[in-house]
Amino acid sequence: MARMRNDPNFNVCPDYASDVFENTRAQLINENTNEEQAVQLLTNIWETNNNADKIAWQRQVAADREERLHREQLEEEEQDRLEQVRAQEEETTRKEDRKKNKHKYIPILATGIPDDAATSIAPCAYAIKKLDKGEYVELWYFTNDGLDEVNRKETRMARQRGSRQPLLAMRAVINDENLPFEEFCQACPRMLTAMEEADWPEDRTRMMARFWRNIQVHKYRSMRNPVAQKALLAYQAEQRKRWHVAVKTSVGPYDLSLVNERVLEETRERVYWETRDKRDNARDYKPPYRLRQACMIEIYVYNKFV
Q1: Angle, alpha carbons 252-187-237 (nearest 5°)
Q2: Is the four-CA dihedral 77, 82, 83, 84 of positive or negative sign?
Q3: pTM here?
Q4: Cβ within 8 Å of residue 19, ≥6 positions away
Q5: Maximum Cα interatomic distance, the chain, rounded to a whole number of Å
Q6: Cα first-last separation, the chain
Q7: CB of 8 within 8 A of CB of 49?
Q8: d(CA 49, CA 158)
């Protein structure tokens, strides 16, 4: 049925007694129907049709109302769905931010400034970021020299442009195998504390603690030969790097704490020959005394007249 555009309740019945409907009346007039009856018949037909239109109009109005309510319900449901999606996205964003910047959301403790605040350990942001990701970090960042370097860089950058510390490795970093043994022992407990603050699993933190303890109490530590201690540091650096690589492979995170004596002996043998080669090379390529003395004289004369 075609859609009705006008409300039939406002329609007015035509005047069928007027001259306009004379031909229409003439078609109804016969020996049984006079002109007055024809007018009434036309009026009755119009009213019947108009009443049918009124019923159809009411049905159309009801259908429009139902369709509008259904559409409004759909729009409301869609709005609710969008609100839920937006709320979920915001909650996901907050969770990611909490995970990424967990220190920002730590509740404030009802304590004042701690007594050791002036001597607290604050490694560089690069080292902290690497630990947060569970990646390998050089122990140098947790030595006195490494911490002092961080403080100097932060002070220098604050004076220059007030920017925060960039997430870049330090140029002065020293590889683990080249650290003095005293600084190695100095850095281990500090890194363990940093691992705990980075939410490392307890089993991994305790494994690292046992690993470094076994390195520090190994018999090589007490030997007079410096190659032995150098071998321990080289073993520690190499095996810790290999462990971090294995974590991301099918090999998995094996127990690093037990010292593999065979691998340590091979490392000691290699360190011995590397040390000897360096000493031999330094001796073989050292210029004779007279040549060194002549070079020093030339440098003195050059500096005097420049």
Answers
A1: 40
A2: positive
A3: 0.55
A4: none
A5: 157
A6: 110
A7: no
A8: 91
Q: Name the region of 264 (left: φ>0; alpha: ψ -120 to 50; beta: rest).
A: alpha
Residue type, 48: T
* Residue range 57-106, pLDDT digits in tens: 999 999 999 999 999 999 999 999 999 999 999 999 988 888 887 767 77
Cα gap 176→38, rounded to integer Å: 118
> Considering only CA atoms, which of 130, 134, 136, 124 is closest in space to residue 236?
136
Task: Quickly tell me which residue has 């440098």 as its tokens.
Answer: 299
Contact 240, 139 (CB under 8 A): no
What pLDDT sits at residue 110? 76
137: DSSP letter: -
Q: What pLDDT, in 10s, does the model give residues 51-66?
A: 999 999 999 999 999 9
Rounded-to-integer distance, Cα 156 and Cα 197, Å:
27
CA distance 71 to 301: 98
Q: 210 CB contacts (<8 Å, ≥6 apart)?
A: 257
